[in-house]
Design brief:
484 residues, alpha/beta, Rossmann fold, 3 domains, six-stranded mixed beta sheet, 11 helices, 30% helix, ATP hydrolysis activity, P-loop_NTPase
Length: 484
């Protein structure tokens, strides 16, 4: 009966979570689009030979020698950013990220396609652009603000916030050339992020300043992420920043978007791209046929529940990890991570060596006795070891959002689920000082509800309610209060 009740609770919780997800999608659909990039393309002309005069230029023209080659930097780029998004753009050096940002900022004009923005856009693409070393810090703030399109009155309103954030109040009337490089960076960065714009565009600038200033910037981005009226577009090589701040992301390779949407999938694919040993200019057409995280080396890698996607606290959750790897003689292993989708974070991780080549399933189970109710996800990744140096490893595949395993822990004992770890697995101990006893009112109420549920179902046997039932369940005797 307890399992049936738990199953019903799991169904109810799954329905509630689905309703919450649908509500989130409705809210997301209601948010206006503040940046629309539609089929944008951009190329540059690279000179191959120089004409020293009109005669040489004419001769080159008669020979059909252009004197330059066309380099396509961006090809058919399209995406949308909605109000309130913290949108990440990642890619290897030379992939076209900065060019795209300059097109978005209005510095470059696209050869094809359109870029539409709604609201005031504040770009911060290169440190120190728009600053004059012969002017004072105060004058540079007004100069840079004017270049960003703000009126004097608007800059007056922002000035104090900019100076306070940069922590340069006593230096604002000194010339910029007397500032240290760190002080100049702080001032420039403060102007950009404290400017009252609607869309903030940042290019590789999250690591500016000293440790204290970086903490301040981290707090600022955490706050702005919660503001539904502010939109941030971030170009970075830091996948930690993408996973921490962004809610959406795209990965650009050779001027094209190859992954879009889920930030974790984008970050993991970026890691794979950087680990590849083949020539960066070589394009493997086969890889386009595989889902994100997979390739010809590992065409199959997924995790699926072995049974019900709902588990009790006292039970194990069983699942199957399927893989295909055919490089015989290459040592390889699988790493797993269990993510807390409700409270956030990775709550467990492990890895184990594999020995069978080809396509196989590994049957696994993980005990749930530590956890409260919640929604969890298990992801896997496949890694190879160097034959001569076992400590040298390479990640060759990972399970994306679709190929990962989602499940729920649903148990009457786990309703007090604000924390990940439940009270039955770990608790505080009173070791001295003022008397302290554990509050067990919640457990008593749950025991009463369980007893009522069993009675309504016509179950045989009784469940003690009140302090005795709670204490008996904990194995501590019939006591109203238990010592910590």
């Amino acid at each position: 009966m307890a399992e049936n009740a738990a199953g019903e609770n799991a169904v109810k919780e799954a329905v509630a979570q689905e309703a919450a997800q649908n509500a989130k999608q409705v809210i997301d659909a209601d948010r206006p689009v503040v940046l629309a990039v539609d089929h944008v393309a951009k190329s540059f002309r690279l000179p191959t030979e120089q004409a020293t005069g009109l005669k040489m230029a004419f001769l080159n023209w008669t020979r059909g020698v252009k004197g330059y080659t066309e380099q396509e930097v961006l090809t058919d780029i399209s995406f949308e950013v909605k109000q309130g998004d913290f949108f990440g753009i990642v890619g290897r050096n030379g992939s076209g990220k900065s060019t795209l940002l300059k097109i978005i900022s209005g510095i470059y004009v696209p050869e094809k396609g359109t870029v539409k923005t709604v609201g005031k856009l504040v770009p911060f693409i290169e440190l120190g652009v728009g600053f004059n070393p012969e002017l004072t810090g105060r004058e540079n703030v007004y100069l840079n603000g004017a270049l960003l399109g703000f009126s004097r009155d608007e800059i007056d309103a922002m000035y104090d916030d900019i100076v306070d954030f940069a922590e340069l109040g006593e230096f604002m009337d000194q010339k910029l050339k007397n500032y240290s490089s760190g002080m100049q960076v702080r001032l420039a960065f403060s102007v950009a992020i404290k400017a009252q714009g609607d869309i903030l565009v940042l290019d590789e600038v999250l690591a500016v300043g000293d440790e204290a200033f970086q903490r301040k910037c981290d707090n600022f981005f955490t706050e702005i992420k919660q503001d539904p009226t502010k939109t941030v577009i971030l170009v970075t090589h830091s996948m930690e920043s993408v996973k921490k701040y962004c809610n959406k992301a795209i990965l650009i390779k050779d001027g094209e978007i190859i992954v879009s949407g889920n930030k974790d999938d984008v970050a993991d694919r970026y890691t794979i791209e950087n680990l590849k040993t083949k020539d960066a200019t070589e394009h493997n057409e086969e890889e386009d046929e595989y889902p994100t995280g997979l390739s010809a080396r590992v065409p199959v890698l997924n995790v699926r529940p072995a049974g019900s996607p709902a588990s009790l606290i006292d039970g194990d959750f069983a699942f199957d990890a399927e893989y295909e790897f055919n490089e015989e003689g290459t040592p390889f292993y699988m790493a797993l991570a269990m993510h807390d989708m409700q409270r956030g974070g990775v709550c467990f991780g492990d890895s184990f060596d594999l020995y069978e080549y080809g396509r196989h399933k590994v049957h696994l189970a993980v005990p749930m006795k530590l956890f409260n109710n919640g929604k969890f996800r298990i992801t896997v990744s496949l890694h190879t070891r160097d034959r001569h140096d076992p400590l040298k490893v390479e990640m060759v595949a990972f399970s994306n959002e679709e190929n990962s395993c989602d499940f729920v822990v649903s148990d009457p004992k786990g309703k007090d689920n604000f924390a990940l770890i439940n009270k039955w697995s770990m608790d505080y101990r009173w070791i001295g000082g003022a008397k302290a006893t554990a509050d067990r009112l919640m457990e008593e109420e749950l025991a009463k509800q369980a007893a009522a549920g069993l009675a309504a179902a016509g179950s045989v046997g009784t469940v003690a309610a009140g302090p005795a039932g709670s204490a008996a369940e904990d194995g501590q005797g019939a006591q109203n209060e238990s010592v910590l």
